[in-house]
Structure formats: structure tokens, C-alpha cells
Amino acid sequence: MPVRARPVSLVAALLGALLVLVACGGGSGGSGGTPAAAPAPAATPPSPAPGPGRTLTVVATTNVWGSVASAIAGPGVEVRSIIQDPASDPHSYESTPADAAALANADLVVVNGGGYDDWVEQILAADPALQSRTIEAFALRGDQAQENEHVWFDPTAVKGVVSQVAERLAAVEPAQAAALRERATAFAGRVDEQAARLASIGQARPGARVLASEPIAQYLLTTAGVADATPPAFSEAIENETDPPAATLAETNQLVASRGVDALVFNPQTETPITTQLRDAATGAGVPVVNVTETLPAGQDYLTWLDATRAELARALGAPA
């Protein structure tokens, strides 16, 4: 029997139904008969810390420690120093939210410690994970009984920071371990050379005595073998930002007026009316004034700054520079 042809209307209806089924089975994203886009792939879970070759970041509280860290870290590591202004007093620095964010995101943090940069200690106290990525210079000082916080002039503390920077970064980037340790060894050798040159000052001028507007250079003077003749009550008052007792101030001024000291070590970043008067009195009495700062001047790294400070002290005391 010949096959009967289907009516055209029925064929059209079947084709229409087929198209509707195809459209419905193509996904939920289509509309108006437009084929739907392919479904989006499943979200990728967050990746762990970036792998080898990423840019490491080191954050230091001052540019002194930033310079030290940068010399060891080498190329490919971003080093940021929070306090850089050579004209301001780092003791009075107030941190910002941007500082806290930079510290939180750093692979390594270098702080002075000892109450010097206490603003960062508050940030560290709130973040145990950040504490584990932090190097404190004060904890590495040679004389643990010494409470002076200006440890960037202590060769033992500086070399301790150098060693820890190299080892901490080597643990993150093992491929750079040899280069990091090589730079650390070379830098530590330069620190030893500066310490030896400082010691030659006391050898050339035995019995030399200096007065200090504040105890910023205590480690420097100890290494140089130069006596600090500053009355302790004067140093304590200046450190605590109070006025020295009248008798202590008179004793200090007399040391200058009588030229009972060979030089005045002056910190221009913590000037007060009392220390400014002391500097002026020293200049008037012919006592050399040695400026010693707490942060690096523009264009100088740690070693050139240390050498310039050493040379100025030597010249003031009449020793070979």
C-alpha cells in the first residue's frame, strides 16, 4: 500500500514542537528563541600564596632599617620604609591605616623595638601571624642588659638583623638563598670594618669625653671608646621629655663653659629649647658639635651614613678621619 503523505500542517506542528524542545534543553540562559550561552564553569577556589618568582615585600619602620634590609634583599624585593623624614622626630610618629595595611601584607617586617617605635608594637600585638614575620633589632643587641633603644649604632644588633633578613627571605625564596647569604656576609664585614675604624678614634684620643643632647649615640661612643660625660639625670629628663633639675642643668652647662668635654653630640631631630641652648653654648665656647640623626639623609644608605657620622666624630675629637 502506498504510504500516505502527512498533512503539511501536521509536519509543521511537529517541527515546531521539536524546535521548542531543543530550545528548552539548551540551558536556562536563552530567551526569545536565542540559543543560550554555555554554562559558566564552577568558581576556582582561592589559590595559596603566590609561587616562586613573585615580588617579595619587606616593610621597615625607619629608613635606617629599610636600608639595611634592602642591601641584603637585593633586586626583585620591594622594600618600604615608613619613617623617612630626616627633620622629624621618629619617637612621636603616629601610624596610619595605610601603615597597618602595608605591615599586614608584608612578607617580612623589620622594627627597631625597645619602645622606640611603640606604634608598631601595638599593631603587632593585634596580629600574631604578623609577629611571626617580624625581626626586632633591639632583641639582637650585644649587651642584653643595655636598655638604650638606639640600636642601629650597635654592630651586634645590625649584624643580627642582617643575618635574620637573609635567612627569613631564603626560607621564602630558596633559589635566592646563596645570593642572600653572600650579601649578608659582605654587609656584616663592612659593619665590622666601620666598628674597627670607630675604635681607632678612642685609640688615637684616649680619655676623650663628649656631652650628648640625648643618648642617641651611646652604642656609637662605646664602640669608639669615647666616654659619655653627660650627667645621667640630664639624659633621663631629655628622654622623658621633661626639664632637667636645675642643679643638673647647671652641671651640664658648666661642662660646656669650662670645656670639660671635647665635643657635643647633638640630635637635630629632637630639638628643645634646652638642647638648642646647649648647642649654642657649645658653639660659643668653641666645643665642636657633632650632628647625629636618627634617620638617613636623602641620598645616603646605612653604611655611607655611618661612615660620615664616624668621620665627623673623629674630626671633632682631633682623631684621623
From TrEMBL:
<dbReference type="InterPro" id="IPR006127">
    <property type="entry name" value="ZnuA-like"/>
</dbReference>
<keyword id="KW-0479">Metal-binding</keyword>
<comment type="similarity">
    <text>Belongs to the bacterial solute-binding protein 9 family.</text>
</comment>
<keyword id="KW-0813">Transport</keyword>
<dbReference type="Pfam" id="PF01297">
    <property type="entry name" value="ZnuA"/>
</dbReference>
<dbReference type="InterPro" id="IPR050492">
    <property type="entry name" value="Bact_metal-bind_prot9"/>
</dbReference>
<dbReference type="InterPro" id="IPR006128">
    <property type="entry name" value="Lipoprotein_PsaA-like"/>
</dbReference>
<protein>
    <submittedName>
        <fullName>Zinc ABC transporter substrate-binding protein</fullName>
    </submittedName>
</protein>
<keyword id="KW-0732">Signal</keyword>
<feature type="region of interest" description="Disordered">
    <location>
        <begin position="30"/>
        <end position="53"/>
    </location>
</feature>
<feature type="compositionally biased region" description="Pro residues">
    <location>
        <begin position="42"/>
        <end position="51"/>
    </location>
</feature>
